[in-house]
Amino acid sequence: MTRDRSYSFDAPSGGRVDRLAGQFIPRSVFSRDDTVVIVNGRPVKKSHRTGAGDHVEVRWTEEVFESLAAEDIPLNVLYEDESILVIDKPAGLVVHPGAGNWSGTLVNALIHRYGEAFSTCTDDGSEADILRPGIVHRLDKDTSGVMVIAKTGQAHRALAVQFAAHSNEKVYVAVVKGRFTRAEGTVDANIVRNPDSRKTFMTTDDRSRGRNAVTHYRVIRQTDSYAFVRVRIETGRTHQIRVHMKSIGHPVLGDVIYSRPDTRFPDCGLCLHAMSLTVDHPVTGERLTFRSRLPERMRVVLKELFAL
């Protein structure tokens, strides 16, 4: 079933209304066709630029699944305190429930770990997103690595502001196809939904379309056909690394959506791993870096390619 949702606030500064609102509500709200944005009582586009002090209201509908089941799914915990949980997410684990994935997700595991109250954890009396308790960012199902999860409403808001402002640092490693002609580079290209396949994305040269995305890469090692790269992203768009690397002719190895099957490594899985995440602690403000070891599926590939 669906329910109506709304959120209102006074803009703390000038800027695009969707980016300002993204500090308080899930950014995915603005990808919905039925989302309505109202500024000072007047409907506007999500790209509308507000002034400081403008009153903003966002209205949308969302699908809800009542009584999400608590499931005893093991989590590899890298760090935990009263405010945050940091895990090493395995490939294959879906982050939050959605169409076709109502069970077996990270959210189901979190409800088992912390109880039903976690699905509405806030400290200001407002209702949390029942489908994303504590989730302030996500990794694709087949991407592994570091994820931080908010355990309180205060932590959720503080981390959401960081991710919206891109003040954190996200570093990945990947095995990609092809040989690079230079050791490092940057892909600065907006990402839009693919009109021919609504579940995939593509780059565009039109700066007025889609969402801005910036990806920096550095080649660590390479052969004539494959490269092991370090990737740092300034933004966090859906499928960003996969789309950007494909756009420059270097799709991620094992990507069944954006690349053809690889004959040498047909069953390697997606060779993309969130190696480290740096954030400011939502309570203490301390700058913290969390790291994850390279997963076995990528170790096997690197051993064959580079004897690592």
Number of continuous helical runs = 5
Structural category is alpha+beta
Order of helices and strands: EEHEEEEEEHEHEEEEEEHEEH
What CATH calls the topology of the largest domain is Pseudouridine synthase
**Radius of gyration of CA atoms, rounded to a whole number:** 20 Å
Low-confidence stretches: 121-128
CATH-level-4 superfamily name of the largest domain:
Pseudouridine synthase
Helix content: 10-25%
Find the count of extended strands (DSSP E, 2+ residues). Answer: 17
The largest β sheet comes out as: 9 strands, mixed
Return the CATH architecture of the largest domain. 2-Layer Sandwich
* Number of domains as seen in the coordinates: 3
Topology:
Blueprint: E1 2-10, E2 15-16, H1 17-21, E3 36-39, E4 42-44, E5 49-50, E6 55-63, E7 77-80, E8 84-89, H2 106-114, E9 144-150, H3 153-165, E10 169-177, E11 184-188, E12 190-194, E13 197-204, E14 214-222, E15 226-233, H4 240-247, E16 272-280, E17 287-291, H5 296-306
Parallel strand pairs: 9-16
Antiparallel strand pairs: 1-6, 2-5, 3-4, 3-6, 7-8, 8-9, 10-15, 10-16, 11-14, 12-13, 14-15, 16-17
Describe this structure in words.
15% of the residues lie in helices and 34% in strands. The chain is an alpha+beta fold. The chain has 3 domains: 62 residues, Structural Genomics Hypothetical 15.5 Kd Protein In mrcA-pckA Intergenic Region, Chain A (Roll), CATH 3.10.290; 89 residues, Pseudouridine synthase; 120 residues, Pseudouridine synthase (2-Layer Sandwich). Strands 7, 8, 9, 10, 11, 14, 15, 16 and 17 form a 9-stranded mixed β-sheet that branches. The protein is globular. About 3% of the residues have low confidence.
